[in-house]
Amino acid sequence: MNIRKNLLALTTILTIALMLMPACSNKNNSKTTGFGYNSRKWGGFENTKYKGQETGPGLVLVPGGAFVMGSTEQDVLYEYTNVERKVTVNSFYMDQTEISNLQYGEYVYWLSRVFTDYLEVYKTALPDTNCWRSRLGFNEPYVEYYFRHPAYKNYPVVGVSWLQATDFAAWRTDRVNEMILDREKIHPYKDFKAKNEENFNTKAYLADQYQPATRKKQKGMPRDYRTKKGKRDVQVKDGIMLPEYRLPTEAEWEYAAQANIGNSQFENTDEKRIYSWNDLTVRMTEGKEKNRGKMMANFKRDKGDQGGIASQLNDAGSITVPVDAYWPSDFGLYNMSGNVSEWVMDVYRPLSLEDIDDFNSFRGNVYTKVALDQYGELEEKDSLGRIKFVPVTDQENKDRRNYKTSDNIGYKDAMTYENDEQKYEYGVTTLIDDKARVYKGGSWNDRAYWMSAGNRRFLDQALSTSTIGFRCAMIRVGSPIGNSKKRNKSLPSSGVGKGKYK
């Protein structure tokens, strides 16, 4: 009798528990509707399994955070264009080294091979090797050999304008994503014979305006849950292809150059660095005894002293040095101080400190949208295989609060004086205009002062010199702490993935 009563009580308890259980207990079901994810029966809405952003070729993750942006030394020029202020940058990726002649040579070779009907594309991309010429110096050998000779293949490319560097980054995005589609057996690479507009372009592919050499549904292609056995092309929601390579913003570059993780405790930075290493001198003072006293970077030590005397070369670089020379910073980046100065994305303003956001600071936003035809359909890609973009209109933004117009480069340039609006006449009485771009860091031909991360200079975006190179960056999407399997305990659980923060 007692056993029967106990069984009855247990049955009652289980029944009540089942009644109280949520209807959507299956982790593959929507917490909104109860519908099944990735199910043809429920319409095929996909919930992608995503492990996190992979690190693209050449990149290292720079964990973001707050830092004091601005000058670290006395402003000897008395310009006061970079007064200290605290800002935050999100985590991002950056090239471990400056872009080398070998890397840039691969780019111009590809252009010459693919754009056979548009050789001006190739010619426009070529570095200006004449940048080495000096009216009172014999630098003609560098004009002839620096970009072309294998002796300099691992040296930083120079003679590249801001516009050329930006084009390189866009090209690199497409080639890396093309490689990923091949690696994942989605679209095997058979387009080495593709010419002109037939070349792979990420945005054209995502807009279904690119026809790969094979349209056969490959093993690695995502499953189309709307059909019974179908496959489909890759989409943004799959997280397979990488975001765009680009130039770093000024804030990102300066943050990466300081690399303050090596001199911080808990949530405090003990000492703001002048250079990309933790010392007030340009010579090695720590580490192995054999390295003590050696130069930490490539720069001009004194007037007429580009690299020391024959028996004792102080930095072993009369001009540039290999992109992986010297010691990396605490972020694992090489030559953030010295060797060549580097382009960043920002448009230059002398008073940027007064009119920037304190999160992901940047001046240079021009908002665009894809170009549509008269029927509201996406316009055909251009002759180079690229999707067309046009500026957003003031009319469609009239009700917006965060921006009103497409071109925001000159935002806050206007000033009011006695109720009359005045504007700075950039380009009329000054070299500063909307085409003046910031470059950072010292070069092989600069004194140590310019190696300070906080110092900034500018040059027209179409010009180039023998002292300016560049490196690329990429946004970090999702978690700023990387693809760690352990959740950051300071973050609330998302309820996804068994408590793991991704």
Can you describe this structure?
- This protein has a domain of about 290 residues: paralog of FGE (formylglycine-generating enzyme) (Alpha-Beta Complex).
- The protein is globular, with a radius of gyration of 28 Å.
- The longest helix is centred in the middle third of the chain and has 22 residues.
- A hairpin with a 2-residue loop joins strand 12 and strand 13.
- The protein is of the alpha+beta class and about 500 residues long.
- Helices cover about 15% and strands about 10% of the residues.
- The strands form 7 sheets. It has a 4-stranded mixed beta sheet. Strands 1-4-17 form a 3-stranded antiparallel beta sheet, with no helix packed on it. Strands 2-3 form a two-stranded antiparallel ribbon.
Total strands: the figure is 17
Arithmetic mean pLDDT: 82
Could you name the CATH topology of the domain at 59-184 and 240-363 and 436-475?
A: paralog of FGE (formylglycine-generating enzyme)
What is the spatial order of strands in the main beta sheet? 15-14-9-16
Q: What spatial form do the alpha-carbon principal axes imply? A: globular
Number of helices: 7
The CA-CA distance between the termini, in Å, is 54 Å
